[in-house]
Amino acid sequence: MIKLIRVFLSVVIASAVLLFVINRLNSAEGFSSGNTITIYNWGDYIDPDLIKRFKDETGIKVIYETFDSNEAMLTKIKQGGTTYDIAIPSEYMIQKMKEENLLLPLDQSKLPNLKNIDERFMDLPFDPNNKYSVPYFWGTVGIVFNTKLVGDKPFTSWNDLWDPSLKNDILLTDGAREVIGMGLNSLGYSLNDTNKEHLHEAKAKLDTLTPNIKAIVGDEIKMLIANEEAAVGLVWSGDAADMMGENENLDYVVPSEGSNLWFDNMVIPKTAKNIEGAHKFINFMLDAKIAAQNAEWVSYSTPNKEALKHMPKEMVEDERFYPSPELTDKLEVYENLGKKNLAFYNDLFLEFKMHRK
Ligand code: N2P
């Protein structure tokens, strides 16, 4: 019996030692322990200089990973392999993550810089009282076009993309909601339509755009269009702003049938390990000058009204990228359509991509 107790005790002690060692190793490698935070963000969506600056100012090291769609982000967070302290999803995905109990409520007492955010972007329907999320960037979806390559052809409607003169000249951003949404909008349907007949109709309409589509791409769309590899693109507004900074022949329009208005926001996933550090990072990004520097580098529109004062006038007065509430009121924000409907959008998009090959 005594022997048995001895064996038992040694097993307990050995496991405790092992756990302690694993723990130390983890923190040494920086898995979001006291001195590290792990951030999960869209590609090209932060000035790298700010990550360094955050470390210099707070001593907190940043592990930084990127994703290229809300859906990919969700899958990775649910898998739980890496635990993230900060993620930056769009509004409909935040709604979904809230429903799936994947987010931690924020401690607003640790975010004094939240006062810098324009009221217009606070307390939106996807997250009342900003309980779980803080605005990062916002924008629209539209058409970027090269006036030199397409001539005087005005782009005002989604249907202009179907013009036969644009054969093999259009790049699409690789986003299920954006591309299916374009199909829906071009038919006069809502971006949040869940009627299967309408969705099939949108997919069939998109199939007829195939001859004009050169490729469906990720962040490289900016480089390709700026380098005039294609004349037209379906893009997020900030990407258009970035390209227009590189090539003066480019212009951006939000089509008249309507389009998407989106909001990307910082959240803390439930599995976060360094909640204190995550709040510090959010508050750092909300600082007026930091947000201004970030917006200038990224080219997307900042919801930080104090930041606007530190930015070039021609940037913040450009109605294409800082549209007034009268204009944005006409646009649609994506809703969380529920698991089945979102899967249906994704399946249609995949079929559409395969059909092209
Ligand atoms: C940045 C992508 C921005 C995402 N590359 C728009 N929601």
Automatic annotation (TrEMBL):
Q: Does the keyword Transport apply?
A: yes
InterPro entries cross-referenced by the UniProt entry? SBP (IPR006059), Sperm_putr-bd (IPR001188)
Matching CDD domains, A to Z? PBP2_PotD_PotF_like_2
Q: What is its main location?
A: periplasm
Q: Name the keywords, alphabetized.
A: Periplasm, Signal, Transport
Subcellular location per UniProt equals: Periplasm
Q: Does the keyword Signal apply?
A: yes
What protein name does the entry list?
Spermidine/putrescine transport system substrate-binding protein
Q: Which organism is it from?
A: Anoxybacillus andreesenii
